[in-house]
Amino acid sequence: MHVTDDRTTQPRVSPRDAAELVDAVADANRHGRTFELVGGGTKRGFGEPVHAHTLLDLSGLSGIDFYEPEELVIKVRAGTPIEVVRAALAEHRQQLAFEPPDYGALFGGAPARGTIGGIVACNLAGPRRVLSGAVRDAVLGVEGVSGRGETFKAGGRTVKNVTGYDVPRLLTGSFGTLAALTAVTLKLQPAWPDECTLLVDGLDDGAATGLLADALRLPFEVSGAAHVGGVRRDPSAAPTTAL
């Protein structure tokens, strides 16, 4: 486990596996220290700043434990970059149904640095959520370490193997407040053979809302719908509606 302690920055603990993570949590409990959990750090701009003694960096927990394309299931360690997973799925023309968004540039960071653990912990889905559901709808199983420094597993590799209290659904969207995730098992879907984006400029809010509602009622699979009206990067630009 790597530990850095620069006086100008928050002390950082970087476990390389679940055992080191257990040791880090146990040590923090003994000394009354609190953690801020990060993977790629791309979502630290969400909400109020976290005030914690130590930064718990989970990016070292990286890698694909198993991927079964024929079963549409993959198990990934929490610190694995989303782009690594996307590249592996693309080889078999598969995808994550919830379309993970990339918030790096939005908060002044580098793009394509988000991790699977961060997306699951925050339950962040992209525009495709209206068609394919949220992140928690794709999570089959989780592994992690509790605040008491205990390892746990919940869920399974298929939907039919999941019984009892749905812990994976509880942890998805908990923002790391309930546990530190070490691995997640996700169900996949085949990638579409083709897709396109339609942009309509100049609609006011009422007309845009009507257009989006009509489009979502069509027999076509509209995977995302948005209207950028009063808040735009370029104030001189016309409102844009995207499908």
Q: What does this protein structure show overall?
A:
This protein is α+β, with helices and mostly antiparallel strands and 243 residues long. The chain folds into 2 domains: 1-194, 2-Layer Sandwich (Uridine Diphospho-n-acetylenolpyruvylglucosamine Reductase, domain 3); 199-242, no CATH class. The protein has 6 helices and 14 strands. The chain has helices spanning 18-31, 82-90, 116-122, 129-132, 167-171, 205-216; strands at residues 2-4, 12-14, 35-38, 54-57, 64-68, 73-77, 94-95, 139-146, 151-155, 179-187, 189-190, 199-201, 226-228, 240-242. The strands form 4 sheets. It has a 5-stranded antiparallel β-sheet. A 4-stranded mixed β-sheet has the order 1-2-4-3, covered by helices on one side. The longest helix has 14 residues, at 18-31. The chain is globular. The termini are far apart. The model has no long low-confidence stretch (mean pLDDT 86). Residues 5-191 form the FAD-binding PCMH-type domain. Keywords: FAD, Flavoprotein. GO terms for molecular function: FAD binding. This is FAD-binding protein. It holds the Pfam family FAD_binding_4.
